[in-house]
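Chain particulars:
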Amino acid sequence: MRLSIVVIAGVLALARPLHAQDPFEIVVYPAATAERGEWELEAHLNYTARGTSSFAGTVAPTRYQTHLALELTRGITANWEASLYLLGARRADVGAEYAGWRLRSRVRAPRAWKLPFDLGFSAELEAPRPAYGGASPTVELTPILERRFGAVRLGLNANMEKDLGDGEAGGEAEGWEFEPSALVGVAVSPRVLLKLEYRGAWGELTDPLAPSAQVHQLFPGVDVRLGELTLGWSVGAGTANAANRLVFASRAEFGF
């Protein structure tokens, strides 16, 4: 347990700025997948109270934006699931509008492997509208590590993201960016999980940003399970140079 806590603490201390903060889905993926034939419907509703105030290229200011992600997941096999997302947003100056779509596939290591931790891998393709993510689709690859010690849950998502475009204004295309997230959770009852989530980014893997340029976000929150329904709430605060410095996040998950 001490080693796992050290790993999580290292991520919290070193993790790098959120160059591409995702305001639609604020979550640390578990290694587990939906069971074969199972459906899951999940909704993420987030509000950015303190964000950017001007356009960054095609991306609209995030301050006072509300973001909605609707996710439908299907368990394909005992260790493989696939998900479709529809994204929506509301800006004060334009109202509610369609914001894009995502496709995601996640697999987990079979329990028969008897690993000392739970291992998973997620691959995601996102096609946002330019105002909500830039002019090009992106791909995200995420190794997932998870370990439980009684009531304590530790999780790490080693997210690597790449813009599939040719670079702005015909410039050089961007490389892979490392954007880790981590979670420490404590189950205070069979229904209630207290959690602390971290979100960050280290910039391009071949040219990591200097520590002085790093940005960090922490999201303390709680998950409550009511039968097949799970509700979650958290409040995120970022460092002074974070794009989104105060975010209210919520989610609802229902399995059937």
About this structure: The domain at 2-250 is CATH 2.40.160.40 (Porin). The two ends are 34 Å apart (CA to CA). Residues 1-20 have pLDDT under 50 and may be disordered.
